[in-house]
């Protein structure tokens, strides 16, 4: 019976060590997994795909460095999709820590496309194809102000250019010229867009969130307030899969790479739960 | 008087904050925007001064009284001062009045310590490290707590298995129905429970806000009642 | 090649706005499927020519002109566009924009708010008259006394984290209310209290709450101002700091009361590993599973808001709590009624409506 007691009280450090190994090893010996997109992901993809030429995709990069591994691949996949379909993109952040992350994503994806471009038309040019508005506070003022006039909220962009002078901003003035706002966030920020932006201006909102946060977002998805939902690393991998298979856009797929580690980690957690329950039931039977 | 003035301020601004929701007229909306974009920002900015003052005082006292681990307080205070100086005078990308890059002679290597570099190389990895601890803590918490003690715990355990397995592309491609069952768990019972909680929380927030505006709830003033 | 123009163009003041906007609608062109889109043209009163003001895609039949001057009359035409071919509609009626003083779309919110306020004030009046109001037992709050006592017996401190949100968050206010009650007990029993804060304003309020609590029970001398302090506004740095406090100070009791994000499990699991008794309360629905797993007691959602009424047993607060519960009962009743009606509407056999 001591064996079953030990099963119920495995030292935390052993659990942490085993988990660390099962997460690290798949990165050293990776195996590729091609996830099938679930409806919430596909809905968001299809909506963005159907944005008319006179409207923009707005990406609100509302996460911090701690959630960068889970959410940055989603931002990159969204940008690849938009640039491949020549959809204008406006990027902002509602938290100052998102600035560096947003800029990294924009620079990376723009460079990817420009390395393949052969003409100026094919290139992704700042000011013409995308604008990085930067950060403003407080968030509510930004969300509501963009319904009136984006250039009033962001009079200069992140790089110090007057927003009104940028070519893209001649057509993209407020939410009327925005197809959808996708909030990439690890907190409840997408709900602010729904509560304030959608209620006041009727904007479409897409959500890209961590797996933990996504459980909170499903009520809004079911009610139709959110057009689509990317949930966690798997949601990011599904979107990457759609972008690659439907548009032929290649590039490093960080979310998909992480699926191997996620797979083994989940199996490990389930194994530990089963072990703990085996010990629990064995001891309970003995006491009876 | 010491309590009446704050209560009056809360009442006036509480009511003024609610009015723009119902009155779309430009006069009201402009006043509300002005308050949020100017006044609130100033208050938030000044509150940082209070916070920094608190850190300095707390760690200064720790050093002065040589409390346990007082040496680490030096680390905190020195880091605070250095990052403040670099941030204020070094510019975002090493373009300020304080030089924040050093080029090693005879090499191409540039050592940068501007605020963007500090952020990217210190803040980002530290934040990611702390967040990654969640994976370990979730494992130990799940191992300890997910025991089928009774019917409710068993249902919780079963749901956890389904959702965790469905989050694994390998399993969901072998058993596609598992993904839909997981979606069902998240979109039906999970949503129902969250909506119920959401209603309660929304009404509770509304009632608590009303109590604060009307001065019934005064705990935030210091003391109760 | 000729294309059919859009028809029946109407213009009216955009309702429920701050002025400066006119809505235009039209019937789609018969050739909507082959055109590029619609160009909207505007003629201001006093001008001679229509000016293009916007372009939208095919399949759309409304547009909001948000660059009008209030009081000035405008007239509109809509043109179906295919390459260089344009087909113009007949002019619309004249319309002028104006600001509205009341948003009629939100009248239902106003009515329910009025009912809700009435209920709360009614029950407060009842409470003031001495009517006894029942509140069910909340395990987490009933355990506060026991938790403080445990810390006192063991000679260990109590750690209180009032959430990571700002002071305008209702959960933070609720957390600070409970802090006041806990501080009164620690003052009475002379137990060390540690209150780290993430927000500078919450720190100042928490400090005053604790100081006032100590004064109220007659122990102002026992208040240690360094027990309440600001740590950092960085989320995970704060979590790391709290974990450090738990492992160094080894508190017997941990309270997590307020709004939390992803750091909740990091703090709760570390606290569990030190063997402390843990009571958590949050309205962050997403963090509840972590607290329930790692803590001994958890206040779920509005149980946190009820804490101040529950712990103080003040008639005013209890009355407000009752009013809030009745408001919830009304919502439940309306939901059940509308669900039943929807069910009946969809039953083809009964065919009642």
TrEMBL record, chain A:
It comes from the Bacteria. The chain crosses the membrane at residues 14-32, 264-283. Keywords: Membrane, Transmembrane, Transmembrane helix. This is Uncharacterized protein. It comes from candidate division WOR-3 bacterium.
From TrEMBL, chain B:
It comes from the Bacteria. Keywords: Membrane, Transmembrane, Transmembrane helix. The chain crosses the membrane at residues 7-27, 39-60, 72-98, 118-143, 155-176, 196-214. This is Uncharacterized protein.
